[in-house]
UniProtKB/TrEMBL annotation:
A GO MF label: beta-glucosidase activity
Name of the protein: Thermostable beta-glucosidase B
InterPro entries listed in its UniProt record: Cellulose_deg_GH3 (IPR050288), Fn3-like (IPR026891), GH (IPR017853), Glyco_hydro_3_AS (IPR019800), Glyco_hydro_3_C (IPR002772), Glyco_hydro_3_C_sf (IPR036881), Glyco_hydro_3_N (IPR001764), Glyco_hydro_3_N_sf (IPR036962)
Enzyme class: hydrolase
Family of the protein in this entry: Belongs to the glycosyl hydrolase 3 family.
Keywords (A to Z) from UniProt: Carbohydrate metabolism, Glycosidase, Hydrolase, Membrane, Transmembrane, Transmembrane helix
One GO term (biological process): carbohydrate metabolic process
Gene coding for it: bglB_4
Species annotation: Agathobacter rectalis
Alphabetical list of Pfam families matching this protein: Fn3-like, Glyco_hydro_3, Glyco_hydro_3_C
Length: 809
């Protein structure tokens, strides 16, 4: 233990207090011992420090900070160095605002395009996600601040996110859902990590000793602090026992009292608590060092970096007839509400109060283009406005080229809600179809943080996908349009032709408690490639204003070498991607998997030899029989290309294996061996899981872990009535096209989380009473709530008094 001396002086009360939050964002300070509190803030693409009332949904205002493009955007740069630079800027702004821990980056796997938080995550591929996250983490921590990668783990849906159970086999868990975190921990050296709300195979992530102790701490060597997501602690005692440290945000001192009780009853050893306290003290002391602040000039530099990030991350999806870049003096019409009010970030806890926001309609006049006019064209809120539409069509008629700004609206991308389809608003498509009738030269500037269907794709000659491009993205889009910037972004995720093609179609989101990850390792391109499903844009795809030739592939034991030449007449950047496959594999596996990449900038005509090294992840797979990473012996295909379908050269390599016992029987798992996993039978899934499928139906009485929205099962008429009121309110909002994050959160919250987020007003004892009421024992339950309330108040006061005097000695 590093801080034994101070721990020896601490009372059990002080130790327990240090392991839970004191307010929405900070930990307890223990002045007697000179232990200050530490301060956490969201979020991954900018600092969200709330100076006034705090909340974890981004509802109340926060201090101005640079709003960088979101993770989904920057992942398209395939440049961990850029992530590092953004991380440094985040760290500097955190220091300036007195923030010690930045709650990010988020690196959950984009299992399904509909997950409401995909815009906050890097990729459908764990290798790319992990490398990008490691870049951010190194950058943030280089400034003396802690990064807190999240949400560990298997948090790929928003629906009932606090009460659902991810049922996933160990190989898929390791290869797909944990590998990114492994890279973030081992290469990024994250000093904190946030557990997810959900259960993983029946145990809350925050209480999951397999995740937190066996894998995170013992296998990966993580020695930082484990923090719960906000309100994500189920049972703090079980959490600490499993390797979690800090319960956030503000359970009052109820959780601390539970820890003390558990020690006294011998359910947890005091030494286990001491280990957590030791880790917390290390963080507290490290983070209480004086750190450098930045001034206005620093913020200006960050705005430039936000611009660079947007410019290097935008993906040129289409460029028919080389419509782009537009020549000087091209007569353009700028159409679309997004040109006036950009969509540059998503909603929820990651919302940043940007220091400034650029608008295309204002900036376009400073370009070399001849602007014939700008108009909004469609209503942001949906619906068709004939007058706006006519103005847009008239304008389009006068121009050589129409620049059409459009995409997903604010309501479609938010924490707390999954989308229910993959389309952009119909009125935007409607207008586009009208515009193309009067002008065939349309360039679309798309804003959306996750994959969408593009049935309207043929209406556009050029498409620049800016994703959610941050506060300075508008200028970046214009510079790509005019050719000042040569686009170099590559998609971090596949764009399927239609939602029905997606691998987890039938399994996402969970119906009741369980979300069955039946598609296994076949997520994203791993599925489309293997099952031969045509996609609109493959993983890794992106065009440039120049061309790159790949030649002279050499494969050796350490990796590959290839020569890449910029054969066009403009400078540009290319991302060389390395994929590995094994045609004669005995275990089932995807056709190819990303195992390395490098982004290089090449002047027109320049050639360079590029090396990409193999690493410990290149040939490994998780063997469920031996519970180890293993390698299959034999020949592997080494594919080097510009995206996962544009493989330019393939080599071979023979590798010595480690496998002596091969898992899986082909006869029993045909879906997995063929990659056709959209309809995996119960039997096959059980083979994959190596156990029976757990029953996820809600039955019998509701308990503290059930969500408020499950009250339709409640025995109490009052509870069912409340459920009805909430449901009706939500439905009304839906009809009005509104999202009330607070209401949604209340709707999806499990009962126990109420005690964890009310600053000590509600205790778990009171929640037990509430459950009795819900389950039809009104008077008994109500009595417990009332006595619980007074007991909790008295015990909290007593505890605080002790902390303020001598720590409880
Ligand atoms: C989110 C986290 C966030 C936290 C604090 C939670 O609702 O899931 O990502 O860091 O709130 O705002």
């Amino acid at each position: 233990m590093k801080h034994k001396e101070i721990i020896d002086k601490m009372t059990l009360e002080e130790k327990a207090a240090l392991l839970s939050g004191k307010g929405e964002w900070q930990t307890w300070n223990l002045d007697r011992l000179g232990i200050p509190s530490i301060y956490c803030s969201d979020g991954p693409h900018g600092i969200r420090k709330q100076a006034g009332t705090g909340d974890h949904l981004g509802l109340n205002p926060s201090l101005p900070a640079t709003c960088f493009p979101t993770a989904a955007t920057v992942a398209n740069s395939w440049d961990p160095e850029l992530g590092d630079k953004i991380g440094q800027a985040l760290g500097q702004e955190a220091n300036t605002q007195g923030v010690d821990i930045v709650l990010g980056p988020g690196l959950n796997i984009k299992r399904n395009p509909l997950c409401g938080r995909n815009f906050e995550y890097f990729s459908e591929d764990p290798y790319l996600a992990g490398k990008m996250a490691a870049g951010y983490i190194r950058g943030i921590q280089s400034q003396g601040v802690y990064a807190c990668p999240k949400h560990f783990a298997v948090n790929s849906q928003e629906l009932r996110r606090m009460a659902m159970n991810a049922v996933v086999d160990e190989r898929t868990l390791r290869e797909i859902y944990l590998t990114g975190f492994e890279i973030a921990v081992k290469e990024g050296h994250a000093k904190a990590i946030m557990t997810s709300y959900n259960q993983v195979n029946g145990t809350y992530a925050n209480e999951n000793a397999h995740l937190l102790t066996d894998i995170l701490r013992d296998e990966w060597g993580f020695d930082g602090i484990v923090i719960t997501d906000w309100g994500g602690s189920n049972d703090h005692v079980k959490g600490v026992q499993a390797g979690s440290d800090l319960e956030m945000p503000n359970p009052g001192l109820d959780s601390a009292r539970q820890l003390i009780k558990a020690v006294k009853e011998g359910r947890i050893k005091e030494s286990t608590i001491d280990n957590s306290v030791d880790r917390m003290l290390e963080a507290v002391f490290e983070l209480s060092q004086e750190r450098e602040k930045i001034d206005d000039k620093g913020f200006k530099k960050h705005n430039d970096l936000a611009y660079r990030a947007a410019a290097e991350s935008a993906v040129l999806l289409k460029n028919s007839d080389n419509i782009l870049p537009l020549k000087p003096d091209t007569r353009v019409a700028l159409i679309g509400d997004f040109a006036y009010v950009p969509r540059y970030q998503g909603s929820g806890s990651s919302v940043v109060n940007a220091t400034s926001v650029e608008h295309m309609n204002m900036l376009i006049n400073n370009t070399t283009l001849h602007v014939v006019g700008c108009t909004r064209g469609y209503l942001r809120s949906g619906g068709i406005d004939a007058i706006m539409e006519k103005a847009a069509i008239d304008l389009a008629e006068q121009a050589d080229v129409v620049i059409y700004c459009f995409g997903l609206d604010e309501l479609s991308e938010s924490e707390g809600v999954d989308r229910n389809h993959m389309r952009i608003p119909q009125n935007q498509i409607h207008l586009l179809e009208k515009l193309v009738k009067v002008n065939k030269n349309i360039v679309g500037v798309l804003s959306a943080g996750s994959a969408i269907e593009m049935s309207w794709h043929h209406c556009l000659k050029g498409i620049i996908h800016g994703y959610l491009y941050g506060q300075a993205g508008a200028q970046a889009m214009l510079d790509i349009i005019t050719g000042k910037i040569n686009p170099s972004g590559r998609l971090n995720e596949t764009y399927p032709v239609r939602y029905e093609d997606t691998p987890s179609l039938r399994y996402f989101p969970s119906v009741e408690r369980n979300s069955e990850y039946r598609e296994g390792i076949f997520v994203g391109y791993r599925y489309y490639d293997t099952a031969n499903i045509r996609v609109l844009y493959p993983f890794g795809y992106g065009l440039s204003y120049t061309n790159f030739k790949y030649s002279d592939l050499i494969v050796n034991n350490d990796g590959i070498r290839i020569t890449v030449t910029n054969t066009g007449d403009v400078d540009g950047a290319e991302t060389i991607q390395l994929y590995i496959g094994k045609k004669d594999a005995k275990i089932f596996r995807p056709d190819k998997e990303l195992k390395g990449f490098k982004k290089v900038f090449l002047k027109a005509g320049e050639s360079r030899n590029i090396n990409i090294d193999f690493d410990d992840k290149t040939f490994r797979y998780w063997n469920i029989i031996t519970s180890k990473w293993e390698v299959e012996a034999g020949e592997y295909q080494v594919m080097v290309g510009a995206d996962c379908q544009d493989i330019r050269h393939t080599g071979q390599i023979n590798i010595d294996g480690t496998t002596t016992e091969y898992p899986y029987s082909k006869d029993h798992m045909l879906s997995y061996f063929s990659g056709n996993i959209q309809k995996v039978s119960d039997k096959e899934f059980e083979e994959l899981l190596d156990r029976t499928i757990p029953d996820g139906k809600w039955r019998g009485e509701l308990d503290v872990n059930d969500a408020v929205c499950q009250m339709y099962y409640a025995k109490s008429a009052l509870a069912r009535f409340i459920y009805k009121i909430l449901t009706n309110k939500l439905k009304k909002n839906e009809e009005l096209g509104k999202t009330d994050l607070n209401l949604l959160f209340q709707y999806n919250i499990p009962f126990r989380a109420i005690a964890k987020m009310t600053g000590g007003i509600v205790s778990m004892e009171m929640i037990d009473g509430v459950m009795m009421v819900v389950n039809g024992h009104f008077f008994k339950g109500f009595g417990i709530v009332i006595t619980g309330f007074f007991r909790n108040r008295r015990l909290n006061k007593k505890y605080i008094k002790k902390l303020n005097s001598n720590g409880g000695k």
